[in-house]
Fold this sequence. Notes:
Elements: H1 6-11, E1 19-22, E2 26-30, E3 38-44, H2 59-75, E4 82-85, E5 101-105
Antiparallel strand pairs: 1-2, 2-3, 3-5, 4-5
The site of guanosine-5'-monophosphate (5GP) has 13 residues, from strand 2.
Amino acid sequence: MDPNCLFCKIGAKQIPAKLVYEDDDVFAFEDINPQAPTHILICPKKHFVALHDAGAGDQALLGKLQLVAAKLATERNLLSGYRTVFNNGSGAGQSVFHLHLHLLGGRNFRWPPG
Ligand code: 5GP
Ligand code: ZN
């Protein structure tokens, strides 16, 4: 845990959030500023700055983030169209530097993203 990290603090329940999933490795919560009817952030409990901060030993954990997204998308009847996104680096729009997978659904999406 990084004591200066917002999402580490949410994972440790030091800062409140609407938690929607948790297991030993992962937690997921509602985004405070949702960009779609469903907008959930899925995080590893282990602190990574971004995807390029992970290594070969993190392969299963990274896969788990996507599988948790698929489970939540299924439970919420989003299978006609949902998006999973990692923003890596400020140039890609990352604003919280603890790796998180966005799960967005419940509306139509354009491509390419802005
Ligand atoms: P990023 O821009 O890093 O890809 O995504 C960060 C996301 O975290 C944004 O969508 C933003 O709305 C969300 N966020 C920032 N601070 C908080 C917070 O304190 N609580 C929650 N639930 N979401 C937050
Ligand atoms: Zn963190």
